Each structure stands twice: as structure tokens, then as C-alpha cells.
User: What shape does this take?
Amino acid sequence: MKQIIPEIYVKDCKNALPFYKDLFGGKIKNLQMSDDLPLFQDRKGKVVHSELHVNSRCVFYFVDIFDPNRKKVGNMTLMLHMDSMEEINRIYDILRNNGTVGMPLQETYWGAWHAIITDKYGAPWALNYTPKQ
Assistant: This one.
């Protein structure tokens, strides 16, 4: 396997992209809107594809939800391993604002700091930071 990149379907992706860019940093690349695509003429203003390149190892694809039966990201949580306590606190604070906390940020029995949150756009995240021993 060369790489795994999560494709995350969120409601109102056009407005969600700046949120995720501010949250994670990086650059939005290859933004493709539905406006000029014949297949999506009935869905103007929607994001068909976008890439958030946080760094050389971390890339997310974000897409609008087109299927009315898809209410949220399904059957998985995106696990983010943080580099520092400051980073996990910053991301946790931003995600929980208008999001739903499933597990508050806390020290765990496995020696890491961990939290589970669904953000305001419906994407589920697990945050993890293991202090160096």
C-alpha cells in the first residue's frame, strides 16, 4: 500500500474547508466545485473534491454530502496522533466548540491523553497524545 487518505463527507463543505484549514494548517489543493460539471448541474455550489495537505504525511480529502441518505461519516473515527500537549488542547478546544464530545480530553490507562469528538460538520475525530517517557 502506498498511502491511505481519508475522504471525509461533510455538510456544507464549501464553508467547512476554511474551518479545517485553520484547525490543521496546511494548504487546500485541487478544489473542484460542481458548478461546471454536467453530472452535478442540479447541485450548484457543492464541493466535488478538495484536498487539505497538512504536511507531507497528512492529507485529507473533503467532499460535500450528495446522498440524502448519508447523514454523517459512517462506521469509523479518524484518529489523530498529536505531537504535543499544546496541539491536542488547541485542536480539542476548537472541535468541541459547536461539536459533540463523546469522551472529554483525559489521561488514559494506556498512558496517553485522549478525546473523542464529532465536529460541527459531522466528522468524528479521536485525538491522542502520548507524552515521551
Remarks:
- The helical segments are 13-24, 85-96.
